[in-house]
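Deliverable D4.2, example record:
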Amino acid sequence: MSAPAAGSFPCPGCGAPLTVRAQGRTQSVACEYCGAVADAQDPAHKLLSQYRAAVRYTPLIPLGARGVLRGEKFECIGYMRRAVRYYGVDYEWGEYLLHNPLKGFRWLAEADGHWTLYEVLPEPPKEGR
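Output generated by the structure prediction step:
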């Protein structure tokens, strides 16, 4: 299996360059400058939504960064910030989407300096008795 080529196009919100790092597998791309989310599979790259965050986060692993994790090469192709409130306490963490064209996807989560690696299951687990 060969690596999907990266491609770029101008953001429909502000014109900044957006890069699709896993073409054919990427559904949408978010602009780090204006918060626009564009359809990566539509040749016109239409605007799907626009989000303006009051707080901006800089990922600890830049998008496009490549490295070796447990002996396998991966590229960071996505980042999202997540949060949950549990018994009145807010918890936040960052999740990085890693990709290797031969090994697939992995999620690397970071919370308060602690890192956890997740592997995507090939199919949902079956309910057992």
